[in-house]
Structures are given as C-alpha cells and as structure tokens.
Amino acid sequence: MQLGFVSAILGDLALDQVMAFAAEEGFECIEVMCWPQGPADRRYAGVCHLDVTGFGTKQAKQVKSLIRQHGVAISGLGYYPNPLHADAAHRQMVAEHLKHVVSAAATLGVPVVNTFIGRDHTKSIDGNWPAMLEVWRPLVKHAEGAGISIGLENCPMLFSPDEWPGGKNLATSPALWRRLFTELGSDKLGLNIDPSHLIWQQIDSARCIREFGSRIVHVHAKDTRIDADKLYDVGILGLGWHTAKLPGLGDVNWGQFFSALSDTGYRGPVCIEVEDRSYEGSLEDRKRALRQSKRFLQQFTA
Q1: What is the CATH number of the domain that holds 64?
Q2: I need a surface site. Which of 21, 260, 277, 290 has the fewest CB within 10 A?
Q3: Per residue of the chain (302 residues), what is the pLDDT tens digit?
Q4: Do 272 and 291 touch, CB atoms closer than 8 A?
Q5: Pairing relationship of beta strands 242-245 and 223-226 according to DSSP bridges
Q6: Are 271 and 75 a contacting pair, CB within 8 Å?
Q7: Are 222 and 247 in contact (CB under 8 A)?
Q8: DSSP E strand stretches across 143-245
C-alpha cells in the first residue's frame, strides 16, 4: 500500500509546494483536489490544486514534471460535490465539471477519480433513484470511455439540521452499494472507502471490505470519536455525537481494518484525510496532523 494524503488540508499551498512537502515527509502519493475555481460552500471544499478546465497535454506535461521532480505519485483526482442537488442547473454544472476531472485524469494517466454520488436530502432513496440514473449513467459511460475508475466515498454528508434527514450522499451502506453497482452495471464504478463513516453508522468496516474488496479503488484514512454522553442525550437520531479525528485518536479499529484490506489483496493508496478541528489552528498545525497520522499508520502500511 502507498501512504499519502488528501491535498485539501493544504489548500493555501500550490501543487508544487504540496508535492515538495509530501516528498520531504516521505509520503508516496497525494490525492489532488480539483474543485472549480470559486468560493467553497462547506469546509474542505473549493480547493483547486489542479485546474481541469481546458486541461490538455501541455498542462499534463507540467504536472508530470512535478511528479518526476518530487518523486510523489498522484493517487487520484478528487472532487466531492452533490451531483444530485435539487436544482437541475446545479446538477448539470457539477456533472460537466466531473467529466472534466475524469478527462484530466485520463490525460495524466491517473487511474482514479474520487467523488460523491450525491443525494437530494429532502427525498427518499427511491425518490432520488430516477435522478441518480439520469445523472450517473452518462457519467459512468464517460469514465468507461476514458478508462478511469470512479471511487465513490461513503460519507453520508449528514452533519447539520439543514441536511436532515437523508444527508447528501446515497452511497453510504452495503445495501445501497449493491443496488448502485447492479443498476449502473459498470466495472469502472468502485469505492473510495473511509472507515470513519462506517463507525458511527454501526457498520462493520472489516466485513464491508471483505465483501466489496474487488470494488475498492482508493482508501481514505480518517478516524472518528463517539461522544457517549452526547449520544445518551440526543440518541442515534440526533446530531453532534461523532467527531472527526486523526487516525488513532478515535474509535476505528485500525488493526482489523488493515487486516481486512490485506486479506482482500488491496495494494493501492491509503490517503490521510485531515478533518480534525484540533489541528486547524495554523498551517503548521495541519502539517503536524499529517506527520502524526503518518507515524501512526506506518505500522500497518510499511
């Protein structure tokens, strides 16, 4: 496995600087964020380390030069919007940009694009399904044509009352993964698995990996801490009782997680995703978060 990190946490640095830091700290890869230019609509969104608009061979040559210079690979390109947003114009904008990300990955020779499948949180799962098929069938076809795998992250995107009750992502559980894989019917559709989201959903992450190992194309390493007192107060249907933490500082059983990954033969990238507010005070704090996470995870990936 190759240990890396998601570039969003270093959003105030240029791609060259991100790669230089990764090389200095001994990381093998980074997942590069490719949001459209413009303001972010939530934390960790809006970061653009690679502008995919008009991306061609000239831009690819420049990026490949950075890869050679620093000796750091690109594990995947990342763009995590809501492709099933209630507004049709927004859905169209997201889909078009996602196609640009896929095309840029193909031009670069990067095999994976990571994203969300999305959801209109005001509708049921079945109520979202027609729009999901309408949006995602052409996206999957585009990915197939480009030879790129799509890694669907499993975060429910349910963090505030505004996202209640459904959250803003459909691809959150084994039952839904099976349904998505069956109905979209493509071997280029896979998972970017993050165990932190499974913990608070009370889904056995090791069992998930053993069932869906052949579908895992990328891995995020993030932990979550369950606040038992808050959970007691508000119950499982409440909010605010799970908190994103660095790997090793929460309730993920990393030994079991990596045991399952190795059992399935996964040998791909494992990218640290820092969303721990305790390490957001400064750029140096965020760099320290990556160093600390790397030291912890190396016992499983080295």
Answers
A1: 3.20.20.150
A2: 277
A3: 999 999 999 999 999 999 999 999 999 999 999 999 887 778 889 999 999 999 999 999 999 999 999 999 999 999 999 999 999 999 999 999 999 999 999 999 999 999 999 999 999 999 999 999 999 999 999 999 999 999 999 999 998 888 888 899 999 999 999 999 999 999 999 999 999 999 999 999 999 999 999 999 999 999 999 999 999 999 998 999 999 999 999 999 999 999 999 999 999 999 999 999 999 999 999 999 999 999 999 999 98
A4: no
A5: antiparallel
A6: yes
A7: yes
A8: 149-153, 189-193, 216-221, 223-226, 242-245
Reference 84, options 43, 137, 135; nearest CA is 135
Largest CA-CA distance found in the chain, in angstroms, rounded: 56
Cα end-to-end distance, the chain, whole Å: 8
Helix, strand, or coil (residue 55): coil
How many separate domains does the chain show?
A: 1
Place of tokens 């559709």: 189
Domain residues for the domain of 279 are 2-301
CA 228 to chain centre: 27
Which ranges of 71-115 does DSSP label H, i.e. alpha helix?
A: 88-108
264 residue type, one letter = T
